[in-house]
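Please check this.
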Amino acid sequence: MYFELSQKYQQLILFGMMVFMSQTNQIIITLKKTLKSQGVKYLDIANHLCISESSVKRQFTQGDISLNRLEKICEIISLEISDLLELVHLQNMQLEQLTIAQERKIVSDIKLMLVTVSVLNNLTFEEIFNLYELEKPELIKLLLQLENINLIQLKPDNKIKTLVSRTFQWQCNGPIQRYFENYIQDDFFDCQFNHAGELRLAINGMISTSSNQTMRKKIQQLAQSFSDFAYKDQNIGFSRRYGTTMVIAIRPWELPEFAKYRRKENNKVFS
């Protein structure tokens, strides 16, 4: 029995060394995220290793951390190197996108859609149960469907672990995107946008193609900022987070009532 455990440990170390050599950057990124989630700072690591804080920062920045030192850093958060490597492996397996068939399956069941959006917003089992009229066996069944498509892992005590990457996106013009667009057209804009947390701007003018391109880049940056905030706020309590939708659009457009009076020779095509 001792030999089997020792051999397994040796295999893990050997595998760890190979991964460490080829994927150092991924390992360090994962380690930094894990340490941050546990509230461990560079100073804590420095004190544990009996080195200066600046040395710790330099090693993390340069990716110059020996296997022995990596093991000691993991000790701070009671993490085995094999556990760290598993985290790296899971991150590499994170889902970037569902297939059209999977999206169609989700759209076909409104409760499955509701649970999908909830888990992607980092709601716990208890929060989903308390928020929506779903019986626990029914909720578990829906979560297992999401586990079958590798969107989540359903762990003991109904703990939900999402397996999507930070850059996860719905299929462009796919079933789910079209579903939400229909509701955005009919329900989202049926609002005066004059209450707390609401804002609507409609700006009209004539700009060049280069200015249009610049505006589109700025809008993409704004959309990325929204995604960054959504990711950062995942650890904030559910009671302090609100389902929020932001719609941003820009296009060469003229009121149809105006356009019908245009002379055919003056119908410019955007280019």
The chain is about 60% helix and 5% strand. Confidence is low (pLDDT under 50) at residues 18-22. The first strand starts at residue 152 and ends at 155. Strands lie at 152-155, 159-162.
